[in-house]
């Protein structure tokens, strides 16, 4: 399927893997790109040399385009911004902040910059600064979220900007893909579906909890201090919600979640760790390779959309 995004990024299928902290490392990114989508290495809070090493390892697996997600709140963001230039990364996505300070650097290196946005205003601002596209991410997604749903955000962003729009949040199969395209998107970004992929290094306990999840099994914590996060319900989220309702301080709540994502992803502690996942968790019913996931989604979507392109 040809779209503005497949042409822009030189990829076969308009499917982008989310740059998830602790999850989006070289095995997953390379597998997605090798299968024809765009894999992303998640910079998260990692030091620059760790990101560089991940890039090199991914390139040992595939020569297809691979991108990096730069988490702008990271204390290492300045160094990571330079590394993607030095390593000639073709595509950068950004989250948790304003990438405008790096735009000249990246554009000068011919890097396609694709910020993740949660509002029309931010999308327009990113276009003004020279973004090549934007990811319009609805609150159905896992991890840090905004306030608007994908169904309402995507068409409004599409109407507001001239650059291509990538839809994210609540997309986990061909039906969601097709719906996003009908809303005007040129591609989709998915995270939760790829967490359970064979190539994902996420602990088996995490994958099992995701596969067993129901439609109502995600919850949002952190709204009281302006940093809402969606994850699967467990002992930790219940305690967090209880403390939040009782007016606990930001520091007390942060202490509760300190290292909690790593605890779940790496150690497999899905009781006390943060099991980030979107509302489509209930759609994830089996383990598949990245290639199987992408081909299954594209087959279903093409049948629904009549095999047409979206240039």
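^ structure tokens above, recovered residues below v
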């Amino acid at each position: 399927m040809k779209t503005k995004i497949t042409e822009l990024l030189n990829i076969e299928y308009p499917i982008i893997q989310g740059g998830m902290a602790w999850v989006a490392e070289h095995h997953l990114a390379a597998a997605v790109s090798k299968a024809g989508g765009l894999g992303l290495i998640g910079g998260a809070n990692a030091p620059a040399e760790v990101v560089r090493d991940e890039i090199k390892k991914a390139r040992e697996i595939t020569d297809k385009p691979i991108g990096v997600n730069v988490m702008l709140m990271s204390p290492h963001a300045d160094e990571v911004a330079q590394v993607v230039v030095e390593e000639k990364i073709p595509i950068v996505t950004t989250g948790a902040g304003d990438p405008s300070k790096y735009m000249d650097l990246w554009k000068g290196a011919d890097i396609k910059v694709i910020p993740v946005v949660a509002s029309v205003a931010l999308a327009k601002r990113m276009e003004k600064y020279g973004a090549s596209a934007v990811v319009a991410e609805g609150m159905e997604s896992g991890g840090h979220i905004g306030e608007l749903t994908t169904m309402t955000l995507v068409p409004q962003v599409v109407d507001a900007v001239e650059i291509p729009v990538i839809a994210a949040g609540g997309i986990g199969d061909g039906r969601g893909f097709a719906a996003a395209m009908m809303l005007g998107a040129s591609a989709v970004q998915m995270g939760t579906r790829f967490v359970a992929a064979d190539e994902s290094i996420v602990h088996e306990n995490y994958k099992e909890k995701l596969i067993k999840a129901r439609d109502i099994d995600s919850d949002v914590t952190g709204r009281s201090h302006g940093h809402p996060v969606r994850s699967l319900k467990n002992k930790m989220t219940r305690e967090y919600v209880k403390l939040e309702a009782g007016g606990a301080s930001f520091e007390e709540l942060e202490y509760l979640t300190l290292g909690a994502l790593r605890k779940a992803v790496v150690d497999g502690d899905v009781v006390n760790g943060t099991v980030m996942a979107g509302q489509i968790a209930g759609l994830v019913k089996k383990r598949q390779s990245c290639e199987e996931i992408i081909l299954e989604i594209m087959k279903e979507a093409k049948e629904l959309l009549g095999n047409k392109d979206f240039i």
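The chain is about 40% helix and 15% strand.
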